[in-house]
Amino acid sequence: MDLKRKRILLTGASGGIGQAMATELASAGAHLFLVGRHHEKLEAVRATLAEPEKHVVFSADLTCEADLERLNHTGNQFNQSGEGIDIVINNAGVNEFNFLASRTIASVQQELNVNLLAPMLVSKMALNWLNRPGIILNIGSAFGSIGYPGYTVYCGAKAGMYRFSEALDRELDGSGIRVLYVAPRATDTDLNSSLVKQMNQELGNRSDSPQVVAKQVIESLKHETTSRWIGWPEKLFVRVNQIFPAIVAQSIRRQQAKIHHFIGLIHPEK
């Protein structure tokens, strides 16, 4: 899809990957509808973009039913005005690096709500007001295809997001709406603590800048690529894990002691 003058709804717009995507999309000529929890941060992002007057900010907590209803109402208003929204990017995400046994029920529910339920509900609403042809692009993770210790809830949510995207794209075949999925590996953002970044360095787990991820998202949108995994050797591990999971399990097992060590440093009271 040509992104010039397309109106794009982007959630998690004030986060690391969100900001990088906003910059790339605005540079490509898109008009952005920036969604996040903090109005001031969204305004700060908007001010840095090409032609800031072309973009709109919308503060909302997507785990709150009232805020979802406000977002749905605004989407309908855009549709009725004749402008409409052409692309929805479900990017908002959270994670907690910890053993499942040490997690609170509330933290598990919150992580599932932000990473899986909210994107599903935004996608459902968008089907009523998204322009056709239109695109829903969901940001996943390599952890959605590779179960990794310390990230059980995050892995489960992102695995669900991958299958949800696949199923909805097939469900909408011929409707004029595509559903795409992009799965970054570890990314250098504030989503990961300094200790997690240190652990990844010591384990040799590579990471990408938010700008690398943003450019890959742009490519997926332009070419309407159904699914894309970012980073080597992670994309190889994804394939191997599908066919020979024991090989990947053995590789991760060699990292187990260090993973446990860093969880202990991050959550010493657990």
TrEMBL record:
Keyword set includes Chaperone: no
InterPro entries, per database record: NAD(P)-bd_dom_sf, SDR_fam
Class of this enzyme: oxidoreductase
Protein's UniProt keywords contain Oxidoreductase: yes
A GO MF term: 3-oxoacyl-[acyl-carrier-protein] reductase (NADPH) activity
Taxonomic superkingdom: Bacteria
Assigned keywords, A-Z: Oxidoreductase
E.C. numbers: 1.1.1.100
Gene Ontology cellular-component annotations: membrane
Signal peptide: none
Protein family per UniProt: Belongs to the short-chain dehydrogenases/reductases (SDR) family.
NCBIfam families for this protein: PRK09072.1 (NF006565)
Protein name in UniProt: 3-oxoacyl-[acyl-carrier-protein] reductase FabG
